[in-house]
Amino acid sequence: IFGHCILVLSWAAFPKSIVTTTTKHMKDFIRAVESIEAVNPDLQMLDVVKGLRKAAGFETNLIKQYLGDLSDAHDLVSDPSVTSYVNEVINHSLSELGKEKGVVLTLDGSNVALAPMLLGLEAGLQSTVQGLYPLSLTHNLVASFLHHVHNEQTTLSFGTKGFWDSISSPKVYTLSDLPSLATDALIIGGIDGFILGSEVSTSNHRERSLSDL
User: Which segment of the chain is annotated as a signal peptide (predicted)?
Assistant: First the structure.
């Protein structure tokens, strides 16, 4: 059920090993999650998702409104290299030079922002259905549209695509057109998050591990 990515990638296909790579393949993020689960075996899926967000320091007023704060989130035991990698790939940002961070490359060539995907999943696990739409999709879309209205000459409204410095070893993702607050990667990640969140909110997937989705 892993949204767009499940069509091309099985989480269970990769060994539970410590991540030493810095590439931005989805499989590298999966390996990081598996290595965390291996040393935190008693945590449920929601605990791991919240712990990942805490490790990345990913918290805003909008997130608190729907998901609460991270005061009760577990401090995940993990190798420092894994924690550093998680921080890097979960936090999304756009630089003035057009570099988009927080994006990973899937096996089918799609570019996915992890932040809205994980927020949608967490909203579903908490059965916070009213937060599923804004956290995964609508907040970014509305913010991008309003920003574009006031900056028509220097931005796009939605869906700016990008390219990697290397397909075999992707590390830097650069926008190929004017920036948008709802890039192609954010929209795809949001759709995945909405699908995942909807699925886990109405099923028994809460008892499974994140890497078994």
Answer: 1-20
Q: Are residues 197 and 127 in contact, defined by beta-carbon separation less than 8 angstroms?
A: no
Dmax over Cα atoms in the chain, in whole Å? 52
The first and second tokens of residue 3, run together, are 């949204």
In the chain, where are the structural domains located? 3-212
Cα–Cα distance between 128 and 191 in angstroms, integer?
Answer: 17
The CA radius of gyration of the chain, in Å to the nearest whole number, is: 16
Band of the pLDDT at 18, cuts 50, 70, 90? very low
First-to-last alpha carbon distance for the chain, in angstroms, is 6
For residue 24, count other CB atoms closer than 10 A to its CB: 26
Instruction: Please indicate, yes or no, whether the overall pTM of this predicted structure exceeds 0.70.
Output: yes
In this structure, how many other beta carbons lie within 10 angstroms of the beta carbon of residue 129? 14
Mean pLDDT, rounded, of the chain? 88
pLDDT in tens, 108-160: 999 999 999 999 999 999 988 899 999 999 999 999 999 999 998 889 989 99
- Residues 198, 213: Cα–Cα separation, whole Å: 13
- Going by C-beta distance under 8 Å and a sequence separation of 6 or more, which residues neighbour residue 17? 31, 34, 35
